[in-house]
Amino acid sequence: MSIIEKALTTKKATREAFGDEIVKLGKENKDIYVIDVDIAKSCKTSTFIKELPNQHINVGIAEQNAAGLAAGLATTGKIPFVSTYAVFGSLRMAEQIRQEVCYPNLNVKIACSHGGLTPANDGGSHQAIEDMGVLRSFPNMTVIMGADYQSTRKLVEQAAKINGPVYLRFTRDKVPMLYDETEEFTIGKAKQLKDGKDIAIIANGDTVHLALEATKELEKQGVSVKLLDMHTIKPIDRDAVVECLELGRIITVEDHNILNGLGSAVSEVVAEEGKGKVKRIGVQDQFGQSAPYEKLLELNGITVENIVRTANEML
Amino acid sequence: MEVTEMKNISIEELKEKAIEMRQTAVTMIHKAQSGHPGGSLSAADIMTALYFKEMNIDPKNPNYEDRDRFVLSKGHVCPIQYSALALLGYVPYETIYTLREYGSPFQGHPDMKKCPGIDISTGSLGQGLSCGVGMAIAGKRDKKDYRVFSLVGDGECQEGQIWEAAQTAVKYQLDNLVVFVDNNRLQIDGFCDEIMPLQDVEKKFEAFGFETKRIDGHSMEDIVETLDEIRELKNGKPKCIVLDTVKGKGVSYMEDIAEWHGVAPNDEEYQQAMEELAGGLK
């Protein structure tokens, strides 16, 4: 059964994928470390703490120190995963990541739950809408957000194998499970969910399932859609974007500010190629507020309906 | 091995080395016409004792796993660290004439990817000590005997992250970590006490749970005696040695003058500095 025909009935937060995968990785490799900053429970590292205490460090509410400490560990051959919320993991420790992780190109992973608008009821202070853009601008950094549980597990596993800094972003809330265990993912390579001839939709993270629903709707209307899961926004899969340009029209969808995230990364390629048109769907350069997650998406037009409408406008 | 020979160096020989260290640092800053002489000179004596006597390091094998680590948290005083690396042969001595030049291993601030013997890149104040804590935790977990030494500035202790690192060092009982505070009482804008008083830095570290001591940071006798005392002190506590120092120490016109934080001497000033330094500390 193709992913287009599959009914999306099961849901799981992608932070669970990190929590599960990191235990597996830690058991396989004693150099894998987790550094928590007090929020282990909500970052899903509790099992790691219980089963691998000698590979765990909790520095308390001190994110900047966590990043530097991880860099120090990495110089001795450890593979530390700093686990926190995306807003802190990208901004509170941004300069420490820049100076002590990216500048010396050390093998540190920043693994963040609560990406995008998913910490919805926590309000605007906790919703990370700039994180991927900030970290995308640091040399040496790889920036990833998996679309669902299975793909996130695979991407965490691969991130551990890359020798260098990686930023991984997870959802706090449950998102539909799209992929089977057997699906393979490669960091830096877009996952094509469907080929098409009329328009390309490129989404990432928790918006991939929305793009998938929109694709189903558009297909019903007779529009042929090419759909990509761009789980890695840096390095962006340039070849995949260039292939989309053969269709001339691209819609990007992301749970991130429309500035500096997936839409920007795709637009950079498109502008340099000098052909084709891009419409960006994402957070409309505005802070969030406490509200149900779906309501926040709606306030920013990150909806199936808006994707369909935008596609029809472009055709 | 060279390392063993260094261990037997006498205090008099260390004082001679400190003269070479100071002259080398001032020479590279003069050649570059850029760099930080004040803090390099206040840190010269502890750096000499660490690099020529105390640390278990091998210039021929800079990255060997069991080496002691050094973290220059106040990264801007790297000329004094580069002097040690050049004098010990980590790089050819002539490298000192390339400070801050394109392609040089001697970058404006320490770069572990470009210079052998640099254990971590630093330069943004307040961050290095956290890296040292990470190295020390790894040493403990891996049951290694190496120690981690870190030099922080007194002005640098205005950064909150220093204290985040300090509390972590205590929690993880890092008695393999030694923090030296270069207490030269000056920062770029003037006296620390006027910019942002640090109060009693020794008491602060003590209150955090460190084993502390305060000594004359320009007395080689006191430095060596203190390093001897703490070498085998495995009491579950990280160590903090507050070094009372003078910014610009050894060059009369630089001493205690904030303006010499980050200014290079001209030719005339350079000649005077070299002559004064040749006589050793008074």
From TrEMBL, chain A:
Indicate the transmembrane segments per the record.
none
Entry-linked CDD domains: TPP_PYR_DXS_TK_like
One Pfam family here = Transket_pyr
Cofactor(s) needed for function: thiamine diphosphate
Q: Which UniProt keywords apply?
A: Thiamine pyrophosphate
Keyword set includes Chaperone:
no
**Family assignment?**
Belongs to the transketolase family.
PANTHER family assigned to the protein according to its UniProt record, in alphabetical order? PYRUVATE DEHYDROGENASE E1 COMPONENT, TRANSKETOLASE-LIKE PYRIMIDINE-BINDING DOMAIN-CONTAINING PROTEIN
* Annotated protein name in UniProt: Transketolase
Gene source species: Priestia filamentosa
TrEMBL record, chain B:
Give the matching InterPro entries: THDP-binding, Transketolase_CS, Transketolase_N
Q: Which UniProt keywords apply?
A: Metal-binding, Thiamine pyrophosphate, Transferase
Limits of the Transketolase N-terminal domain: 20-276
Pfam families named among the record's database cross-references: Transketolase_N
Q: Give the cofactors, semicolon-separated.
A: thiamine diphosphate
| PROSITE patterns documented for this protein | TRANSKETOLASE_1
User: Which superkingdom?
Assistant: Bacteria
Say yes or no: keyword Transferase present.
Answer: yes
Q: Signal peptide position in this chain?
A: none
**MF term (GO), any:** transferase activity
Q: Which PANTHER family match?
A: TRANSKETOLASE N-TERMINAL SECTION-RELATED
Query: What does the similarity note say?
Result: Belongs to the transketolase family.
Designated name of the protein: Transketolase
Species source reads Priestia filamentosa
- Taxonomic classification, please? Bacteria, Bacillati, Bacillota, Bacilli, Bacillales
